[in-house]
Design brief:
- With about 675 residues, the chain is mainly alpha-helical.
- Among the domains are: about 300 residues, no CATH class; about 35 residues.
- It has a two-stranded antiparallel ribbon with strand order 1-2. Strands 3-4 form a two-stranded antiparallel sheet.
- The protein is globular, with a radius of gyration of 27 Å.
- The model has no long low-confidence stretch (mean pLDDT about 90).
């Protein structure tokens, strides 16, 4: 009955939020929202933990008496995995938001609506993971999308926020149209909206076309290239705790949807897997190349989200190719990597967005070129941003290394075992992953160095200082979970194997299914990660003891003989990645605002130079299509001419048209 109790309990807590949060004093609204988020998390974690750890399934079905209106709720291991991730990120996001929104306490109504919507978003995402009937799923999906829209538009008085909200609204509903079309197709073929009908459909029809429809529909939410263009606008516009939740788990609802549909596939594994790999490579490379160029901190992190979505799809594609070739070890490692990297990315990306919020709150800018030297005033935030940067770059001893190690292992197994016909696919995947990892290190070396090292490039009205403990605590909790994955990778790998059974059923019946060498390697990763951490702590303690007895004054770094160095002489984020930008200008074109000096201009006037990098897919493809559509629609502007007489004629024309259609039985 856990599914039934969770259904009733979550709805009750959402109704409670609608009543209680508006009545609370302004300074306690965040606490009320946090308590409700924690209660929903506890209520949903209990059955989810049982489903994941005990490999059991909880389900509830309510017969409405009206076909096709039956409500089916189900919690299996895949639902449980995403439910646990949702709860981790929502609790940390609510805890961080409690401190972040203290600067907005003068907006009483805005704060009330914000925390109500936060609770609704958490509930809707949980329902997306539990719903097993198309209509219920679409309702939960729409509630999730609209609540996220209103949360990201917290500062709705800003033009850029409205622009980001409209982009998100349009693109997420394009995805909804595709999903709705898929479920209608399913109902027309099988007479049911139940997810079990998808399995029946795939048994008797070609799998590729319905899967493609769902893949594109969920792909809008996941942010695959070229359906990604809402992310670089939504994440910078949203409050930082909402950015963390959106990047950490909202986009993963698209991943969940695709994984759920994948469990029903019966044929076409190679074609679908190869297509997903191609999308993954393009998405990963395109995302990280744009991230390396951008100097807006939160926009850079948004493109890194796109990159990591590509890595998750790499694991998914390799898993499907493993199923296509009968290599169940490859299939198991591929799907396990996709699931584990989903958790890893949710953790370190929410951490990075929270630390970006710390920086923004103290400096009121996201432009890296205006920052510098913040490590002196914000050491805690600097250390946490550094840890997040190490993790997202896939370096030990943190969690990002574990999932990327598994992905490399799967690719090597594929190269050795699935035959010469597939070697090209595996080698291309390997090269792409290596390139993504290298550019990722460049990106975060640039970001950390520009923001936290060197000297300040701008004099702020108020000296930046470390944020409150309420904003650092959720970052610390996330780091603890990240470290647990880095130190105990074999435990988490064995845990996701319970979910992998949905994709590779034979896993549950095989003994020693995973190679012993991989199990040994995972154990060794945890052991050496612990050794590295202990060694680093020991060195820091020894250094602290020695430096305490030999203190030296802090002086300006030698500037190569320059007598009066200025902040303008420091290495900037743009200069750090300029060579890469020039090399790949056809992928990440640079837009410049600069009036060239004319030939006859003997005494040129003072000029300003500004540049920014553009999203080539948005500017060259989508903007061109939109411009064409607007140009064509301008021919029909005469219809809306502001004349009442014309509008009356339109009504008469419509009535006559209906009348004629009725006479000739066309209507």
């Amino acid at each position: 009955m856990e599914a039934f109790e969770l259904t009733i309990g979550s709805l009750t807590l959402v109704l409670l939020s609608l009543i209680a949060i508006p009545l609370l004093p302004i300074k306690h609204k965040a606490t009320g929202g946090l308590i409700l988020v924690v209660l929903i998390a506890i209520l949903s974690t209990i059955p989810a933990s049982k489903a994941l750890f005990q490999n059991s399934t909880y389900q509830f079905r309510y017969e409405t008496g009206y076909s096709p209106g039956n409500i089916s709720i189900r919690i299996d291991s895949l639902s449980a995995w995403f439910i646990l991730i949702i709860n981790i990120i929502c609790i940390s996001g609510a805890l961080y938001g409690k401190g972040y929104l203290k600067a907005y306490l003068d907006q009483k109504a805005n704060i009330s609506i914000h925390w109500i919507l936060f609770v609704v978003l958490q509930m809707a995402m949980l329902w997306v993971c539990m719903a097993q009937q198309g209509l219920v799923f679409l309702i939960a999906w729409e509630i999730m999308s609209l609540s996220a829209l209103l949360l990201l538009m917290f500062e709705h008085e800003k033009i850029e926020t409205l622009n980001a909200g409209i982009r998100y609204l349009v693109q997420t509903h394009l995805g909804v149209i595709l999903l709705t079309t898929g479920f209608i197709w399913l109902y027309s073929a099988e007479g049911s909206f139940e997810f079990s009908a998808i399995d029946k459909f795939f048994r008797h029809h070609p799998n590729q076309w319905l899967f493609l429809l769902f893949f594109l529909g969920f792909g809008f939410k996941a942010g695959i290239v070229p359906l990604h263009t809402w992310l670089p606008y939504a994440h910078p516009a949203a409050p930082s705790h909402i950015s963390g939740v959106m990047s950490g788990i909202l986009v993963k609802m698209g991943i969940y949807g695709i994984l759920r549909i994948t469990t029903f596939l019966h044929t076409g594994f190679f074609q679908i897997g190869t297509g997903i790999l191609l999308v993954a490579i393009i998405t990963g490379l395109y995302g990280i190349l744009n991230a390396a160029m951008h100097r807006d901190l939160k926009r850079m992190l948004a493109y890194c989200t796109i990159e990591n979505i590509g890595i998750i799809f790499l694991g998914m594609g390799i898993g499907l190719i493993g199923k296509a070739t009968g290599n169940l070890v490859l299939a198991s490692i591929g799907f396990a990597t996709a699931l584990l990297h989903t958790l890893n990315h949710a953790l370190y990306k929410s951490l990075l967005f929270f630390t970006a919020g710390n920086i923004y709150q103290q400096t009121h800018t996201r432009d890296m070129e205006k920052l510098g030297g913040l490590i002196k005033n914000m050491p805690g935030s600097g250390l946490m941003f550094l840890i997040g940067s190490i993790a997202i770059a896939g370096l030990p001893p943190f969690n990002g290394f574990v999932s990327e190690f598994l992905l490399y292992t799967g690719i090597f197994i594929g190269i050795k075992s699935i035959g010469v016909h597939y070697v090209t696919i595996m080698i291309t995947s390997f090269a792409s992953l290596a390139l993504i990892g290298g550019i990722s290190m460049l990106t975060f070396t640039k970001s950390f160095g520009t923001i936290f090292l060197g000297n300040p490039r701008t004099e702020f009205h108020r000296q930046p200082r470390e944020v409150s403990l309420a904003m650092l605590l959720p970052c610390f909790l996330i780091i603890c979970i990240m470290l647990s994955i880095g130190l105990l990778p074999q435990f988490y790998f064995s845990l996701v194997q319970n979910v992998v059974q949905l994709f590779v059923p034979v896993v549950s019946t095989e003994i020693n299914f995973i190679p012993a060498a991989l199990t040994y390697s995972l154990a060794a990763i945890g052991k050496y990660a612990l050794l590295f951490i202990l060694l680093s702590i020991t060195i820091l303690i020894i250094r602290k003891i020695i430096s305490r007895e030999n203190t030296k004054p802090a002086v300006t770094t030698w500037a190569c003989g320059y007598p009066a160095p200025t902040p303008k002489m420091e290495y900037t984020g743009k200069s750090f990645s300029k060579s890469l930008g020039k090399l790949l200008n056809f992928i990440v074109p640079e837009g410049k605002k600069y009036k060239e000096i004319q030939t006859g201009e003997i005494f040129p006037k003072k000029r300003k130079y500004a540049s920014h990098y553009m999203d080539v897919i948005e500017t060259k493809i989508f903007n061109s299509i939109i411009d064409r559509m607007l140009y064509s629609l301008n021919y029909f502007k005469f219809i809306q001419n502001g004349k009442i007489q014309a509008y009356i004629l339109y009504g008469i024309f419509f009535i006559v048209l209906v009348f004629i259609g009725t006479i000739f039985k066309l209507i």
